[in-house]
Design goal:
Number of strands: 12
Radius of gyration: 19 Å
Shape: globular
Helix content: 25-40%
Structural class: alpha/beta
Order of helices and strands: EHEHEEHEEHEHEHEHEEHEHH
Strand content: 15-25%
Oligomer: single chain
Number of helices: 10
Strand order of the largest sheet: 2-1-3-5-6-4
Bound molecules: NADP nicotinamide-adenine-dinucleotide phosphate
Length: 277
């Protein structure tokens, strides 16, 4: 019997996960199918119970359910617990266990494109302090020697993110203005706000004017493929990366978690680029 996996969200019609997951199953000769499920807010608990009853072994969670799904799961992992956001769920021994792969996928994407095995003493700027930023900060701050500035419009939220790893010695919460002024101090800049997303593509959280030589700038947004901040970073000589690789990594990591199959995310990246172009 074919295994069923899926994604829940609202709206969900434009999710690209069914496309890349089903392609990956086919390429890896897996007897599985991935389905997008549109769930109404008031039906979330019933939907989760229904998925468990019919034996769905794993599903992704997207907006607006990343936090709301938590009360209906049996367990959540430490990152999901600290960030109060779940985006991957796996059925283990009849229990739904929630994980958050945003940070791991972002780190994997950055290391791959930078050609580095690990982080070490880099000066990093995270722009934003929302759900994705929390998970990314939590993952990056496992490296004790990196310096991390979290810049956000609402400074209190940047402070709250910093508290996710209170013992990390080199983390500071700063304003977007301060980040803009000292942009030439960073080896890596990770843009995690929703600014610059389609259709408001003419916006950028900071104005890029003077980056450090060899800076690497990653924007986790994938639509458009090149946000304003990435365009300005490229024009200023930086190496840049959009959010497609992170999205592909998340999907590849979820398949590995659910099935044990290690899938190559390059084909997923190509399909995503084609679908978004
Ligand atoms: P979120 O929790 O809603 O956080 C949004 C962030 O953007 C906050 O830091 C918010 O600042 C900031 N922001 C929004 N509008 C702003 C404005 N006008 N001026 C200044 N700051 C503003 O969102 P999220 O879930 O973290 O997602 C953020 C983005 O990442 C989305 O575009 C999402 O599609 C993308 N994403 C991509 C991937 C991937 O796999 N590539 C994964 C996850 C998310 P305040 O705190 O001041 O409101």
């Amino acid at each position: 019997m074919s295994e069923l996996f899926g994604i829940i969200g609202n709206p969900i019609a434009h999710s690209l996960s069914p496309l890349i997951q089903n392609e990956a199953y086919k390429l890896n000769k897996m007897n599985a199918h991935f389905q997008a499920f549109h769930v109404e807010h008031e039906d979330l608990e019933t939907a989760i119970k229904g998925m468990k009853a019919i034996g769905i072994k794993g599903f992704l969670v997207t907006v607006p359910f990343k936090a709301k799904v938590i009360p209906f799961l049996d367990e959540i992992d430490p990152i999901a617990e600290r960030t109060q956001a779940v985006n991957v769920v796996q059925l283990i021994d009849e229990k739904y266990v929630g994980y958050n792969f945003d940070g791991e996928a972002c780190l994997k994407a950055i290391l791959e494109d930078m050609g580095k095995p690990s982080l070490m003493k880099e000066n990093i700027l995270i722009l934003g302090a929302g759900g994705a930023a929390q998970s990314i900060y939590y993952t990056l701050s496992q490296f004790e020697d990196v310096r991390i500035d979290i810049a956000n419009r609402t400074l209190e939220k940047a402070d709250a993110v910093k508290k996710l790893r209170a013992h990390h010695k080199h983390t500071h919460a700063i304003s977007l203005e301060e980040a803009e002024n000292k942009q030439d101090q960073y080896d890596i800049i990770i843009q995690t706000t929703s600014i610059g997303m389609w259709p408001k593509t003419d916006q950028s959280p900071i104005n890029i004017t003077h980056l450090k030589k060899d800076a690497f700038v990653s924007d986790i947004i994938y639509n458009p493929a090149e946000t304003k901040i990435l365009k300005r970073a490229r024009e200023n000589g930086a190496r840049t990366q959009n959010g497609i690789k992170m999205l592909a990594s998340q999907n590849a990591l979820s398949i590995e978690k659910w099935t044990g199959h290690k899938v190559n995310d390059q084909k997923m990246i190509e399909s995503l680029e084609e679908a978004l172009s």
